[in-house]
Amino acid sequence: MDFDVIIDSIPKLLDGAVLTIEITALSVAIGLAFSIPLALMRVSQNPALWMPVYGYIFYFRGTPLLVQIFLIYYGSGQFREQFEALGIWQYFREPYFCAVLTLTLNTAAYTAEILRGAIRAVSFGEVEAARACGMSRGLLYRRIILPKAFRLALPAYSNEVVFLFQATSLVSIITLLDLTGVARIIVARSFAVYEVYITAGIIYLIVTYGILYIFRKVEHRLSGHLRERAGAVPAIAGKGGIPAGQAAADAIAVR
Amino acid sequence: MLDLKGYGWMLWDGVQVTLSVGVCAMALALVMGLLGAWGKMSKSKAAHTAADTYTTVIRGVPELILILIVYYGTPTLIQGVLESFGNDTIIDINPFLAGSVTIGFIYGAFATEVFRGAFLAIDKGQIEAARAYGMSRSLAFRRILLPQVWRFALPGLGNVWMVLIKATALISVIQLPELLRNADIAARAVRLPFTFYFAASLIYLAITIVSMLALQRAEVWANRGIRRA
Fold first, then answer.
1. E-state strands within A135-181
2. Residues of chain B contacting A71 with CB distance shorter than 8 Å
3. Could you read off the pLDDT of A115-129 as tens digits, one per residue?
4. Into how many domains does chain A fold?
5. To pair with B101 at 20 to 30 A between CA atoms, which of A182, A225, B23, B71?
6. Residue A169's CATH number
């Protein structure tokens, strides 16, 4: 073990980690925004709405992410003239843009599927009650179904965010200097192969469990009404609050 | 249809390598999964800690980093050890072996959770009954638990397989001529990147679809002895 190399490489690796987190955050935010309309289209009864979304989700879940990245980054070169005519070629030349675009499309597909499962898991009684109160469809979705579905989806969604965070390591293959990319360059220069990769792996590990910790906090906060109040007498001995989203986690197929 | 300019055979060769790596990795993942599940449920503290560390580390580190560590790190590590004994040899790992072992090792962690859930799903009374008949723990495991665990584990293992086969695309970074790597070579040769990557993606999609159908049939088969309401 060459500890000097490890200590020298840590600041550079952390610079790479910043790019990794930046790409993850950007893709997660845009992907989540896209996934909500997609999930709503997916649960629609109208074939013109759900069929294209079904095809999109199936394609992005059924093919490897690396192939999708190559398809968008290298594949766009085949349509250079058309893209130049449209004035969008400058974006597709950038690995950063292609990476965020692919990861966004990928996570939007997975998230839409998670949300679909969660929307289906909202109990029908609540929907019926809302209808009986005279809520319109839009109001029903906004006030009852979506808030409930978000909470049910949270455990599966936290998995998705962790997977996406780790999947960003693939962007190093299209020359971006994320955590993995920086590690590969340091290894190429110093030949300290396992020292550097293991250090990078540990940084990934720490951030991953950091993300899971934040999600646990959020879940805890959102499920306050399901827990027993502090100091209240437990109704059934040995049975605490229902772990939030437990049922949904079982019902929703995780990647 | 896609015009592959006579390079279709390369994709076909690649599919065969992809499927071979996938099958070898899955076999290893099953073994690791059973071992891991045994460790997680074992009363031995050492086995428990080992299994917990295994799943925690694997789930927290990206596959690509693990592949790079195994493929490039192991030879240097062994060479370093040999050098300290005054032995100067250069060691190369076969990419097929490195790829299968790494992917199998990674997905073994996911299979561990699947098997653990499946073992817990089996009625405890059956084990008690077997023990009451005087079966040893290992015999009860072999005759009672193991034959039934597949039924509960099948959907989860099917999922692991479908994610695993997609993960084999990552082995292209260590130059193994699997589907994506071959598509890459062909794409560069005829300068049609979109055509070849798209063709490769459709092949992966086809593998996924066939796996899903096979899984459905296997589930029906595995549940043939179960009464349903």
1. none
2. 194, 197-198, 201
3. 999 999 998 899 999
4. 1
5. A182
6. 1.10.3720.10
